[in-house]
């Protein structure tokens, strides 16, 4: 299993800063080749104690033991429900992704806003940890105590004082089992850094394996390293691919391997509905690499797995046509004795933190400003929260103003591949249209239309193309109406295409031909924080 979570690295920005001047970098090849990782001074010292402590578990489950999160900053939330939002049973549309929405009980009021993220901490798969422990010649029940080395502190400082200077992940691992360290605190499934390749090369006894590994850590071996990246190799796959490599020490691994990082997902709910609940949505990362082997997202696969294993995940076909609420659907399902027993199982928790978005929030005067939302696929997630928020604010406004409806413009541009397979939140969109929370819904389907749409004058396309079909309305809203544009989704194709569409709209509406002049207007929108991005690659 390999870590390639595409939703991991999210960027929120209002405008791209100018690129710094490029500097000529001189790489010293000989220095890279002669540096020995084995001889580098170590920052940390590891003492291994054979007897496990009473509160440590040696279970091989992929779900983290809740006790392991008691001494850290992670919050915990109970999974209330989970459901697939897409239909992916058609082999002809194999590119349809499995999209899941999870609803959490936060157990207390936690402040968040629509547009914020939930950061989920997932463990490494127990199969990978088991094989890695065996390859490292380690016993899974051993305990470790990590302290700073004597060379970095004064000998008179107590070990307990040294511990607080450790990185947070090693503080959590201190006093726990090696299994805990490898499962929860080190990114053993991530892409291997070149320093680790250098270390493994120094530990190889076979000359050919040594040569390949050492070369892959140098400039001359960039093609080898590129191949490793393409294949998404990790520590375990390298150790199994190069059997002559002697097991690296835990000291070296905690020095070189990055801490396990959380994965960020856009929240698709509003705290105005219930401040103790939050929902988020994600695509399960699962695709074949160049060799035909499947690449799985670490966190998305784990979330799907624990929901399935605990009978929490319902397919779209199991949801009631007239009620899309999962809890009520579950209550109407006929239950066997086994099912009833499964319902009484222990609740399932996940460790998480909230991460606030610096800019991607509704304006304070959101009921008075036009809102334009552009979010294909799971990029629509924050806009579900936006619309829920606006719906409640509108109701409060109407009540306080004798049902004098607010007339702010709200637009949503949504795109996906198939109108029948991955048109997520279609029912919610229709409800927002009916209650006037959403004024305009523009959809773009790139591969397949429904039978009803096929009989109408509807064409396939992308959101960046559909935007240009409404050029005058959008330009007036932005240029004179003080509108806010929010774009969420793919950073490479979609967001670049949307930007180009707006520049072309500016040129068309102002009757100018100069790209630079049109770009200046777009930049001003960004500087005014009225053109906001939440994109990932």
Automatic annotation (TrEMBL):
Positions with biased composition (Basic and acidic residues): 1-12
Reported cofactor(s): FMN; FAD
Molecular function via GO: [methionine synthase] reductase (NADPH) activity; flavin adenine dinucleotide binding; FMN binding
Keywords assigned: FAD, Flavoprotein, FMN, NADP, Oxidoreductase
Keyword Oxidoreductase: yes
Sequence segments annotated as region (Disordered): 1-20
Name under which the protein is recorded: FAD-binding FR-type domain-containing protein
A GO cellular-component term linked to this record: cytosol
The species this protein was found in: Heterostelium pallidum (strain ATCC 26659 / Pp 5 / PN500) (Cellular slime mold)
């Amino acid at each position: 299993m390999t870590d390639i979570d595409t939703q991991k690295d999210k960027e929120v920005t209002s405008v791209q800063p100018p690129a710094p001047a490029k500097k000529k970098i001189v790489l010293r090849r000989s220095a890279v080749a002669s540096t020995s990782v084995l001889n580098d001074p170590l920052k940390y010292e590891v003492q291994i104690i054979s007897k496990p402590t009473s509160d440590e578990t040696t279970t091989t489950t992929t779900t983290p033991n809740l006790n392991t999160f008691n001494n850290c900053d992670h919050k915990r939330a109970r999974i209330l429900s989970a459901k697939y939002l897409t239909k992916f049973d058609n082999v002809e549309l194999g590119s349809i992704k499995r999209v899941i929405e999870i609803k959490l009980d936060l157990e207390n009021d936690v402040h968040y806003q629509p547009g914020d993220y939930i950061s989920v901490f997932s463990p490494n798969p127990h199969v990978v940890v088991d094989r890695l422990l065996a390859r490292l010649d380690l016993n899974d029940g051993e305990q470790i105590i990590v302290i700073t080395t004597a060379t970095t502190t004064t000998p008179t400082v107590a070990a307990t004082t040294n511990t607080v200077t450790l990185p947070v992940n090693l503080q959590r691992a201190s006093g726990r089992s090696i299994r805990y360290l490898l499962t929860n605190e080190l990114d053993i499934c991530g892409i291997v850094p070149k320093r680790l390749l250098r270390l493994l090369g120094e530990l190889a006894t076979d000359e050919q394996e040594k040569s390949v590994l050492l070369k892959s850590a140098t400039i001359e071996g960039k093609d080898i390293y590129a191949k490793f990246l393409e294949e998404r190799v990790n520590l375990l796959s390298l150790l199994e691919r190069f059997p002559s490599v002697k097991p690296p020490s835990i000291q070296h691994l905690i020095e070189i391997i990055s801490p396990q990082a959380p994965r960020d997902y856009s929240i698709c709910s509003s705290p105005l509905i219930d401040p103790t609940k939050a929902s988020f949505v994600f695509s399960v990362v699962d695709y074949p690499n160049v060799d035909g082997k499947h690449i799985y997202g670490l966190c998305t696969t784990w979330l799907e797995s624990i929901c399935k294993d605990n009978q929490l995940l319902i397919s779209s076909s199991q949801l009631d046509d007239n009620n899309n609420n999962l809890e009520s659907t579950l209550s109407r399902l006929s239950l066997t004795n086994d099912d009833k027993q499964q319902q009484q199982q222990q609740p399932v928790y996940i460790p998480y933190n909230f991460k606030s978005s610096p800019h991607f929030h509704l304006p304070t005067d959101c009921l008075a400003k036009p809102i334009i939302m552009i979010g294909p696929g799971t990029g629509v997630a924050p806009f579900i929260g936006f619309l829920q928020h606006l719906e409640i604010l509108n109701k409060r406004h109407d009540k306080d103003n004798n049902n004098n409806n607010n007339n702010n413009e709200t637009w949503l541009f949504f795109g996906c591949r198939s109108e029948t397979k991955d048109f997520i939140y279609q029912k919610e969109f229709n409800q927002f249209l009916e209650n006037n929370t959403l004024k305009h819904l523009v959809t773009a389907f790139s591969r397949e239309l429904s039978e009803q749409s096929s009989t109408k004058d509807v064409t396939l396309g992308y959101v960046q193309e559909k935007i240009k079909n409404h050029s005058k309305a959008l330009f007036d809203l932005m240029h004179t109406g003080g509108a806010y544009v929010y774009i969420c989704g793919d950073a490479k194709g979609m967001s670049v295409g949307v930007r180009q569409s707006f520049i072309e709209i500016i040129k068309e509406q102002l009757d100018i031909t100069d790209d630079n002049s049109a770009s200046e207007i777009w930049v001003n929108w960004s500087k005014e924080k009225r053109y906001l991005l939440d994109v990932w690659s």
